[in-house]
Amino acid sequence: MLRLLLKLLSFVTGQRLLTPEQAKSQQLELDDLRTKQVALETLSSKLRSELKRQQALALQQIEKNQDSHKQTMTAQLSEIDSLKEALSQLNQSVDIETQRQIKENNDLLSQLNWLSGTIAHDFRAPLRAIDAYSFFLADDLGENAPPEASKSLEEIRRNGKRMGVLLDALIEYLRLGVCPLDIQLHDLNDTLMQVVNEHFDFSPVPIEIQVHGKWRFDKPMMMKAFKELIDNAVKFSRPVESPKIIIRQSSANNLEIIDNGVGFSDTHGAQKFQLFHRMHGNDEFDGEGIGLATAERIASRHHITLNLNRVGNQTVASLQLPEHGSN
User: Fold this and answer.
1) Terminal alpha carbon distance of the chain
2) What is residue 270's predicted lDDT score, i.e. its pLDDT?
3) Over the stretch 130-158, which tens digit does the pLDDT of each residue have?
């Protein structure tokens, strides 16, 4: 009955009239909304405070990072300055060492020139005298000279000439160790062909060249080294049947001179490249033990490794460029 009356009054007044229960329920909803609003405002306040705190921390971290970066930059600049100073000192040391080495080389070259002159004059004078007086003695004795005396005089003159050859080889060997190098890029095939055409045009042993590419070296000196190695191969290949020399590359940095000659004994080892060392007797092959030593000396000046090995029935002389010397 009350609900009907409220509806009628609501219709007459144009306003909605609530029952006490409805009013109480609506009041509870309003109170709940107010509570939620207060909670939201509290949460919003906390969020704003937290945001301000985080912003402050971020600013502090940025300032800290900037300070750290400044310190790092300062340390790096200090290290760079230290490196510059060390580099400057190193350059000064290098300059001093270079000047010292130049002076030592000049002193050594002067000593070599003096030694060469001494050998050429003081050492050769007795040899010339020995050769001349042995010739005069043989001429004075004439046909009346006993066979043993003639043979002895011939042996004296032969050994005198051999000593002259050894002195020339010694001077050349010393010169090769100090003379300046003119290092340029050269075609290997052209250089080897020039050596063969100039020195082995009438060689009884056929020489086959299978090389290509370019190496950096002093051409006159390397031509001399190639000549000595090829000459060594030709000399020891003559006695064998169907001798042949092949010059080839096993790689861009390795050159091999291969012959099928009589070879040598493994007992010689590192002595193969010693000056005046011979791997065969004078009654077997001529020579003074100069060629291989000269070739090794030249190779060493170019930082090239020279090896001589017996592989099966072949002798292989290999020239190996250093790893950084690729062309």
Assistant:
1) 117
2) 64
3) 888 888 888 877 777 788 888 888 888 88
- The pLDDT, as a whole number, for residue 325 is 47
User: How far is 170 from 58, CA to CA, in rounded Å?
Assistant: 82
Closest CA to 121 of 164, 169, 159, 80: 164
DSSP structural state of residue 119: I
**Both tokens assigned to 225:** 């080294």
Region 301-322: mean pLDDT is: 89
- By residue count, the chain amounts to 327
User: What's the gap between Cα 140 and its chain centre?
Assistant: 64
Is 70 exceeded by the pLDDT of residue 254? yes
Closest CA to 249 of 222, 209, 292: 209
Which pLDDT value is given to residue 326?
47
d(C-alpha 177, C-alpha 301), whole Å? 7
Could you list the beta-strand ranges (E) of the chain. Answer: 184-187, 207-210, 214-217, 245-251, 254-259, 305-311, 314-320
| Whether the Cβ atoms of residue 270 and residue 309 lie closer than 8 Å to each other | no
For residue 276, give both structure tokens: 């005046």
- DSSP annotation of 123 reads I
Single pTM value for the model = 0.60
Residue 12 has pLDDT above 70, yes or no: no
Residue 286: φ, ψ to 5°: -80, 170
d(CA 27, CA 24): 5
Query: What is the rounded average pLDDT of the residues 291-298?
Result: 89
Paired tokens of 228: 């000595």
Tokens matching residue 91: 């350059």
